[in-house]
Design a protein that fits this description.
762 residues; alpha+beta; TIM Barrel; Immunoglobulin-like; eight-stranded parallel sheet; 15 helices
Length: 762
């Protein structure tokens, strides 16, 4: 053993106790901070407007962390591949700007320490924060040369004092570039855990870089490498603990939510346990990056299954792609409406999808739209994401009309902080409406009038209504026959003509709605009309998270809950209420059976519960377990092996592709063995089987008794089992429990009835 290997071995022997202690404690000097968590400031997350910031590109608040002579830093600020000086001190200095714009949540670059040494390929710096080097220390470029957490904590405190939640970009897929001088090294509070070259205990995945169709292949996208970044093996117990310790530490520092980088490329089953870990620690919001530009993407169904069940919401790439096409490239509003209709059917929690006009991985909108009306089209696109179903996210600088092509050109320095641009005023106005009118936070969405260039749609939540009319044409559009849910009366443009909006007059009831007088929408205009009456009945809008075990805190949002505490029930079981206001209740999941439970809120003094929200109850905190079935049933192209079992996490014996767990994974070198990581309840004994589902939907159960496995109380788990075949010399038939059921016994040719598993017939 060489000296490096010996040192690494010593580090590994003591690292668990070192980083666990660090993860559960605030770093030195922070124990006296008393900032409030933002959840206590404002209800839920669906009323929020998120602002995405590349910290290095926003504002330089401290020159002390701009090291002279550092090859990764550019003092002139012109080389977009290097650090330019922005920091958390700069964000703190500009907090009033964000507050004045109506921002209520800010998504920031990961504050964690990143690669320090140059990559072999050149002088590209990890200014973006996606090359983690230490799971518990902050990066010196964004804080101080001594890597103090104080500037970050000051930023969190300032944000919370301004009513703004803090969302951190977190990259659980990888550490730093494996071809760099840092060699993928990962530390925890300064203690070396592993390097890519040493790779102790399978710490890293060692697959090649992905390319071509591999980006949309279930196996390669999870197990191959992206851009030579050292791919972490989340099922390694040390890696699992390090990543969960990292988010715990950030939560201890006041972080309110996480955006999971490259969620599509992280072990899908493991992420259920990460989200559950986050929600178990503290009230939070988690969304991820799963790139699938439309429903034709090969992994679109996997995206639906993942986000509908994992507790991880997603950035809405299918809607983003269509927004760019419709607003920026002359596409038709019929295409946009079609996506909304499809997503209404596909996604279980549409109001949690995060919508955006542009971001750090795509060309900025004003570069995509090359027309003379590009700013007018941007105003229409911004108005749409700020009022459509889902949570709007604004990329820094869009309100200042920042342009930019492909990476890194789309990551230019913030050009200024004017509060007089039309875009800034539009975001501010609609942010206020989003906070005040529940239709935007929780309401349905439906088309009311449409052609290629004009779109009028309605958001509705009980009596709260918002109607939006966008004309992206260069000429006026006459509107007749419009029917909305706005009662008889005249409604002024909520935006007060900011984007050439006009008033609307509802003339009388007709066919379940109210007709309107004929009117004209000016060219390149946005009109917003709204109604938000007071209510004395409980109206439940959303529950965050959407799945958890008994004892976890949940945020129940809506309106009309009343000022005095009433009651919350999961099915028929009352929940313990921790706080109560007219728009938000915080309660703990009660001890109820595993599976889907209907959450309701009842006002004090009332016997009438609110509408219900389907919440998935786990038996216990989730633990990632890798299941491997050996010698599975032979498959043809299009056939897949799935798991099903006796818990909601295993599908409750479902035999459908959407209900059972999987599909499991295999490769040409591992076939006919298949594996899958599944997050299952800690300490519980599972009953399960593998099944084959053919391309046509036919189901084949493995034979024999159910497999049994007791999940470990913590850490990670592994279970290997063999597919159970019939072994006999004669013809046998199965006696099962009905269509799709697993067999209980066999009746052999010899006439003997025997329980499974079988030995050969006599």
């Amino acid at each position: 053993m060489n000296s490096y290997a010996s040192t690494l071995s010593q580090h590994r022997a003591s690292r668990l106790s070192t980083w666990v202690a660090a993860a559960l404690m605030l770093p030195a000097g922070l124990c006296l901070l008393s900032h409030a968590h933002a959840q206590s400031i404002r209800p839920g997350y669906n009323r929020d407007v998120i602002y995405q910031v590349f910290v290095d590109r926003f504002f330089d608040g401290s020159t002390a962390n701009n090291p002279s002579g550092d090859p990764l830093f550019d003092a002139s600020g012109t080389n977009l591949q290097k650090y330019l000086g922005g920091d958390f001190q700069g964000l703190t200095a500009k907090m009033s700007y964000l507050q004045n714009m109506g921002v209520s949540a800010i998504w920031v670059t990961s504050p964690l320490d990143n690669r320090n040494l140059q990559a072999l390929a050149g002088s590209v710096a990890p200014y973006h924060g996606y090359e983690m080097r230490d799971t518990l220390k902050p990066d010196e470029h964004f804080t101080t040369s001594s890597r103090s957490w104080q500037p970050f904590s000051d930023f969190v405190t300032a944000a919370h004092n301004a009513g703004i939640k803090v969302i951190v970009d977190f990259a659980p897929n990888h550490s730093n570039v494996r071809g760099s001088g840092d060699d993928g090294a990962l530390y925890a509070n300064g203690v070396l855990q592993a390097t890519y070259s040493s790779n102790p205990g399978g710490f890293f995945q060692t697959g090649p870089n992905m390319g071509g169709a591999q980006w949309d292949s279930p196996y390669e996208t999870q197990y191959y490498t992206i851009y030579d970044l050292s791919d972490l093996n989340q099922t390694n117990p040390t890696v699992d603990a390090l990543l969960k310790g990292a988010v715990t530490n950030l939560q201890n520092l006041g972080v309110d939510g996480f955006r999971l980088d490259a969620a599509k490329h992280v072990n899908w089953g493991w992420q259920y346990s990460l989200a559950n870990h986050i929600y178990s620690n503290q009230q939070s919001f988690v969304f991820g990056e799963w790139v699938a530009d439309d429903s034709n993407n090969p992994l679109y169904k996997d995206l639906l299954k993942f986000t509908n069940k994992s507790g991880v919401a997603e950035l809405n790439f299918p809607l983003f792609t269509t927004i760019n096409s419709v607003f920026g490239q002359g596409g038709s509003f019929t295409a946009l409406n079609s996506v909304l209709v499809q997503q209404q059917a596909d996604f279980a929690y549409q109001n949690d999808l995060v919508n955006f006009v542009d971001n750090h991985d795509r060309k900025r909108f004003l570069t995509v739209d090359t027309s003379s009306s590009d700013r007018a089209h941007l105003h229409g696109a911004l108005a749409f994401v700020l009022t459509a179903r889902g949570i709007p996210c604004i990329y820094y600088g869009t309100e200042q009309y920042l342009e930019g092509g492909d990476d890194p050109d789309n990551r230019r320095r913030m050009p200024g902080f004017s509060e007089t641009t039309t875009a800034f005023k539009l975001i501010k106005s609609l942010s206020t409406l989003r906070k005040n009118n529940e239709a935007l936070a929780y309401g349905s969405i439906g088309e009311r009038w449409m052609n290629s260039n004009t779109y009028i749609y309605e958001r509705k939540f009980y009596g709260s209504v918002v109607v939006v009319a966008i004309n992206k044409s260069g000429s006026a559009q006459s509107i007749s026959g419009l029917v909305t849910s706005l009662p008889t009366g005249t409604y002024s443009d909520y935006l007060s003509g900011l984007v050439s909006g006009v008033s609307l007059t509802a003339t009388g009831a007709v066919g379940g709605g109210y007709s309107t007088a004929n009117f004209s929408l000016p060219a390149n205009s946005v009109s917003v009309w709204q109604r938000d009456p007071a209510t004395s009945s409980a109206q439940l809008g959303n529950v965050t998270p959407t799945a958890a075990q008994p004892g976890v805190k949940v945020v129940i949002s809506g309106q009309g809950f009343g000022s005095a505490a009433g009651s919350v029930r999961f099915g028929a079981t009352p929940a313990s209420v921790l706080s109560w206001s007219d728009q938000q209740v915080v309660a703990t999941v009660p001890s109820v059976g595993q599976g889907v439970s209907a959450v309701t809120v009842t006002r004090s003094g009332s016997t009438t519960p609110s509408n219900s929200f389907n919440f998935t109850v786990y038996q216990a905190k989730l633990i990632p377990v890798t299941f491997t079935v050996n010698n599975a049933s032979p498959t043809n192209p299009g056939d897949h092996i799935y798991l099903t079992g006796n818990t909601v996490e295993l599908g409750n014996w479902s035999t459908t592709t959407t209900g059972a767990v999987g599909a499991m994974l295999t490769t040409p070198t591992t076939y006919p063995n298949w594996w899958l990581t599944v997050s299952v309840p800690a300490g519980k004994t599972l009953q399960f089987k593998a099944i084959k589902i053919t391309a046509g939907g036919a189901v084949t159960w493995e034979n024999g008794s159910n497999h049994s496995y007791t999940v470990p109380a913590s850490g990670v788990g592994n279970v290997n089992f063999n597919w159970q075949y019939l072994r006999s010399r004669g013809t046998e038939r199965q006696e099962g429990r009905g269509a799709g059921a697993q067999p209980r016994r066999m009746i052999c040719k010899c006439g003997k009835v025997r329980p499974l598993p079988l030995a050969p017939c006599p």
